Amino acid sequence: MDFLKINGTKKIEGSIEITGAKNAALPLLAATILASNNVMISNLPNVVDIKTLLKLLRMLGATFDHKINDITINTTSLNKTQATYEIVKTMRASILVLGPLLARFGHCEVSLPGGCAIGQRPVDLHLKALEAMGAVIEIKAGYIKATAPNGLTGTTIVFDKITVGGTENIVMAAALAKGNTTIINAAKEPEVVQLCEVLRDAGVEITGIGTNTIEIVGNGGKLLEFKPFAVIPDRIEAGTYLCAGAITNSTLTITNVIPKHLEAMLVKLQEMGFGIQRGENSVTLTPANKIKPIHITTTEYPGFPTDMQAQFMALCTVADGVSIIDEKLFENRFMHVSELLRMGANITLNGTVATVVGTPNELFGTDVMATDLRASSALVLAALVAEGETKVHRIYHLDRGYDRLEEKLTLLGADIVREKE
Ligand code: UD1
Q1: How many alpha carbons fall within 13 Å on the CB side of residue 121?
Q2: What are the C-alpha distances in Å from 85 to residues 75, 91, 113, 179?
Q3: Which of 116, 196, 243, 316 is catalytic?
Q4: For residue 217, how far is its CA from the centre of ligand 1 (angstroms)?
Q5: Mean pLDDT, all residues of the chain
């Protein structure tokens, strides 16, 4: 197993190019199950979660030509419809093949994702919506067994809770269903928007893209002809590097981003006293005179993303005063707190609310353990300013979603190396 060794208290400086969004690429790859042609995708992030989904697609019978950030994928040869436990246990997002497999083949089996470090994360809303479209779903021996012998039929779905993956699964299923589907209380995340746009470019009639009501005209089961496309930039990777600049109080530019997607984070950074210059495809952060504390409530897009909560908590530990962070989306997404405490942070938890008493220069280096993807990057951020050496263990979590993190931070001047346990 690898770990990261980081020597803290370094300033960083420079410019970092942001890669394609993992959370956009995953549903887009799943959507290729609906394709009649070779699908060409560029700006694909080179991270483990993408390799995991590609492994699953290969197990289902897909073939592809994959060169780091570009792929041409052919799913016309698909001859299996089971997503096994072996794959799903390593990545919950494998559930995204459920909608497209069912829509295309009329049956499929997907292992039930278990809980995960950040909470229970059920998939009941995905299943309820597919049932409303005519699917028969049985949970047996840890598998979701779904059938729709007569195909899926469009209907009106009202999500009780906004769900990113649920919206994506239903948009994909609805594209090949008979008749119209209306999704009410749909997710508006940029990753959902890109999925809808790619499907629209492939000939599916979709309206309300980017709003909370999406309407899809199903084509009755005809496979789609995809146009080549590039994955949108990763707003969470972008936000994480902005936090690296902020926690070290440095000047940093991120490029290949869509600033609009970062707005909730940019406003919080400005509230904390940092300078933010928005370019067309870039953002520059400049140092604060004094890093001020903030209040954050995580919520659905366009609100503050839960996937940036841990990184901002690390940042709040060096602010001058008390910050309040309310995690509204996942009940257990505070695993990084105990590790930040080991580094000398002053954080107390009360239900979903973390109170962070920030003090400049209070963190020190020690051994810490990554517990989930974004918690891992929070520990790396804290280590950049901790006095002495920090070892971040179990960084396989980090590798699921960050492309060459230590290489990029080294380019910015950080002292960070990957070593074997
Ligand atoms: C996606 C992102 C993840 C991000 C999350 C919220 C991907 C691959 N992952 O996860 O990084 O943190 O959105 O922005 O894009 N829920 C249910 N029942 C369901 C589905 C969801 O109760 O059937 C609950 C969840 O437990 C959670 C909330 O709804 O509390 C939002 O979850 P959801 O938007 O579905 O998250 P994911 O799509 O899994």
Answers
A1: 19
A2: 21, 10, 8, 33
A3: 116
A4: 25
A5: 95
Average pLDDT over residues 377-383: 97
Q: Are 254 and 241 in contact (CB under 8 A)?
A: yes
Q: Which atom of ligand 1 is nearest to the CA of 191?
A: 15
Judge whether 47 and 400 are in contact, CB under 8 Å: yes
Q: Does ligand 1 lie within 6 Å of residue 47's CB atom?
A: no
pLDDT attached to residue 106: 97
Q: What φ, ψ does residue 369 adopt, rounded to 5°? A: -120, 130
Q: For residue 240, give the 3-state DSSP assignment.
A: helix
Task: Give the model's pLDDT for residue 19.
Answer: 97
Is residue 118 scored above 80 in pLDDT? no
- For the cut 70, the answer to whether the pLDDT of residue 115 exceeds it is no
Confirm if 314 and 247 have CB atoms less than 8 A apart.
yes
pLDDT(360) > 90:
no
Determine whether the shortest distance from the Cβ of 26 to ligand 1 is under 6 A: yes
Q: Considering the entire predicted model, what is its pTM?
A: 0.97
Mean pLDDT of the region 71-89: 95
What is the Å distance from ligand 1's center to 34 Cα? 23
State which of 49, 53, 137, 161 you would mutate to test the pocket of ligand 1, scoring each by most atoms of that ligand within 8 A of its C-beta. Answer: 161
Please state the atom number of ligand 1 nearest to the C-alpha of residue 120: 26
CA–CA gap between residue 277 and residue 67 (Å, rounded): 34
23 lines ligand 1 (CB under 6 A): yes
For residues 41 and 17, give the distance between their C-alpha atoms in angstroms, rounded to a whole number. 19
Which pLDDT band, with edges at 50, 70 and 90, does 10 fall under? confident
HSE of 95 in the Cβ direction (CA atoms, 13 Å)?
A: 25
Integer Cα distance of 408 and 16 in angstroms: 7
User: What pLDDT band is residue 117 in, cutting at 50, 70 and 90?
Assistant: low
Is 108 tagged catalytic?
no
Alpha-carbon distance of 121 to 331, in angstroms, equals 9
Is the CB–ligand 1 distance for residue 94 below 6 Å? no
Q: Residue 300 is which amino acid?
A: E
Q: How many Cβ atoms sit within 10 Å of the Cβ of residue 30?
A: 27
Mean local confidence (pLDDT), 44-59: 96
Amino acid identity of residue 275, one-letter, is: G
Phi, psi for residue 378 in degrees, rounded to 5 = -65, -40
Q: How confident is the model at residue 108 (pLDDT cuts 50, 70, 90)?
A: very high
